Amino acid sequence: MIVCGLLFLSVVNRAYSAPAEIPLSSAIHPAPSTFSAPTVGDFLNACSSDQGGCADEVGAALMDKMTLDGTADICLPSTDYAVAVPEWLSSHPETHNMPTEDGIYLTVKTLYPCR
After folding, report:
1. pLDDT at 28
2. 113 contacts: CB under 8 Å, gap ≥ 6
3. Distance separating alpha carbons of residues 12 and 45, to the nearest angstrom
4. Which pTM value belongs to this model?
C-alpha cells in the first residue's frame, strides 16, 4: 500500500513539476485571433480556422468605423454581408499590410455602396 502511494505521489509530482512544452515560435509569437489580428494578412490567416470569429470581426469593424450621421454610403444586402469580405481581401493583396479594421471597412464600402 505504501509503495502504491509513493508511486502515485511520484507520478503526480512529475505531472505538476514538469514545464509545459510549448513550441518556441508559439510562445514568442502566438497566432493572432480574428479579433487581435493587427493586419489584414493576419486577419485572413486567423479566418482560415475561425469563420464565425471572422464574421464577428467584420461586424465589429463595421460598427467601429462607420459613422452614423448618414454619410457612410453603405447599404448591406443581407445579414450575410460578412461572407464576401475575406474573399475580396484575399484577392486584393495590396490590402494585406493594412490595419485590419481599415481593410475590412474599405472592403465593405467597396462591395456594398448605396446606389
Report:
1. 56
2. 73, 74, 75
3. 38
4. 0.71
